[in-house]
Structure formats: C-alpha cells, structure tokens
Amino acid sequence: MARSITINPNLALLIIDMQKTFESMAKPLIPEINATIASARKANIPVIFSQHGHENPDEEESTSVLVKWWGASGSIKRGSADWQLLPGLDVGKNDPVLSEKSTYDAFHNTRLKSLLDSWNVDTLIISGVLTNLCCETTARSAFVQNYNVIFLSDGTATASDAMHQGTLKTIGFGFGQVMTCADLREKLAKIKGK
Q: Which residues form a coiled coil (predicted)?
C-alpha cells in the first residue's frame, strides 16, 4: 500500500556525501539536486550537506568497523581531494555541512538531529550517494527517530541499478515516501514558506 506524506513547511533537505570520491555516481545527479535545492530555498526550507570522512584511516582501521570493512585505502581521509564536495554542487555559504560524518548514518555523532529539532523539522528529504548505504541508513535512522522521510529516486545513486531499485522498494515499503525530484519540486512550489 502506497503511503503519502503531507508536504508542509516543516521540511529539511539533506544532500548526502556528494564528494569527489563518488564522482562517477554523484556527478550525474547534480542538475536534479541543484534544481531541488533552488526550490527548497525558495520555500524557505533548510538545506544541509554531509561530507563523509576519517581523520586517519590507517589508525582507525583497528577501531572502526566501517574502515575495517573498506580498508584504510578504501576510506576517505578528511581534507583529501577525494573528501571535497563536488564542484558545481550548489552549496550556499550559510548551508550547514556535516563534515564530522564518519559512518553511514548521517545522524550518528553529527549535529543533524539538533539542527532538525532547532528548526522544528518533522520531515527529512534525502538525496545523494550511495542510495543503499548512507542514504538508506540515514532514512531508516530518521524514521526510527520519528521523522517522516521523503527519498528522492532520481536524486540518489549507487554502484548498480539492482542495488538502487532494491533500496527504493525497501524505503517505499517501510520507511518513507519515494518520489522524483520533479514531483517534489512541484509540491515545494505550493509551499508559501515559513
């Protein structure tokens, strides 16, 4: 059964890990995400970015399960070229960037929840990469923490279409409403703002 979330001004748009290391998957999303960012700003909806990384992956390999899984060489070092947000992504000077993010869940050990609560957000819009890792984990975490979730089907990407589609089905079944960026922008255009 499809569920529909009422679109209201108590929204926030989270763009997850649109970084150089994920360029092949993330770069094609930029036009849709930037158009969605513009619509969110017009409706006075806050936009938040996350930037995944590790201070010293070589040292963290003994303590971080995520770094163990991917290996120090497969992990993103904070401050490196791979850690940088992609050029062309519309990051505003006042947009919070969760550069402290170090695991799949953008809520874990970051300012995300405190930001959302300070803005009285009840619905989190999720976009970025990777669909089935950081985006899905954050969507599940948001749901468990009692936020409504909107998950952008063409505003997220991962390594294969099968993984992408699997996550969209899972999110739509049990965690949030899946919609296209264009559908969301159409709904945002009807919001008068806060």
A: none
